[in-house]
Amino acid sequence: MENINTENLTTEQWSQVLSESLPYFKQWCGKVVVVKYGGNAMLNEELKQAVMEDIVLLSTIGIKVVLVHGGGPEINKMLDKIGKESKFVDGLRYTDAETMEIVQMVLTGKLNKDIVGILLQKGGKAVGLSGVDAGLLRAHKTEKDLGFVGDVKDVNPEIINTLLDKGFIPVVSTVALGEQGDLSNYNINADTAAAKIAIALKAEKFVQLTNVPGILRNIEDPSTLIKRIERTAIGSLKATGIIAGGMIPKIECCETALAGGVPRTHIIDGRVPHSLLIEMFSDRGIGTMIY
Fold first, then answer.
1. Could you tell me if 128 and 171 are in contact, meaning their C-beta atoms sit under 8 angstroms apart?
2. Is there a smaller number of Cβ atoms within 10 Å at the N or the C end of the chain?
3. C-alpha 154: how far from its chain's center?
4. pLDDT tens digits, residue range 61-70?
């Protein structure tokens, strides 16, 4: 694996790594794992390659991986190219009709196919989908006026299950179809969509790849990482300000997944090469697990 120096490992150390991993191979084989992919791991080419290697390895040993991706920075870049100013309301992107066209073009046309292409180059079997395909995601307009921004109302996982059963890696971009009678498509928050997809698939694990180590007691000190949080403790961590700012929506997505029956949710650092493998196949894991 790239970026991991294995030259100085002794035979005993190699044996320990492999023997530690084997039970996890058995544990996760045949299970569904939903990975939300974004943040710095998506922007850095070297990290992107490592993530795709991880996904292909997981799929190769029989884990049913679903990759859900966002693309905010890429959307911003395209809007800048055409000279359209990004508009935000309370930190959320306002998506007018012209911006929605750009969102669809970037998410479903460029990013989705780029990711599928890398997975294929790495030896995986991947198929790109949007939430529109086969009616995977149905959405209604958000209560707050954000233009063509929607909330997920229904998930129809049939197309994903079909692909998983055939050994494919579904790669999902989060553009959703409007409700029956609504001919609009909607821009959906990728974290929220991934949580709803994990529920619909009865996934065993929901993982968010982010650009932070996890939940820290002191945001300036990575050594204060909280490795495990029981769902009932989230309220007190919010009240004391440990969970704050941009971490709140990520935690809320974890809560959504847990409430829908997903047993384990994780926030892990996508800036660490092969962080998915460390989380899936080692005793120490990485990041924060909310259960």
1. yes
2. N
3. 19
4. 999 999 999 8
Beta strands 150-155 and 137-141: pairing type?
A: antiparallel
Could you tell me the pLDDT band of residue 44, with boundaries at 50, 70 and 90? confident
* Residue from 154, 146, 148 nearest 183 by CA: 148
Q: What are the strands of the beta sheet with 169-173, ordered from one edge?
A: 126-130, 169-173, 64-69, 32-37, 205-210, 264-269, 288-290, 228-229
* The overall pTM is greater than 0.85: yes
Quote the radius of gyration of the chain (alpha carbons, Å): 19
78 pLDDT higher than 80: yes
CA–CA distance, 213 with 192 (Å, rounded to integer): 20
Pairing state of beta strands 205-210 and 88-89? Answer: unpaired
| Distance of alpha carbon 213 from alpha carbon 198, whole angstroms | 22
| Centroid of chain to Cα 28 | 18
pLDDT band at 9 (very low <50, low <70, confident <90, very high): low
Q: Give 123-159 pLDDT, tens digit per residue.
A: 999 999 999 999 999 999 998 889 999 999 999 999 9
Is the separation of the CB atoms in 54 and 41 below 8 Å? no
Q: Tokens 């995977």 identify what position?
A: 136
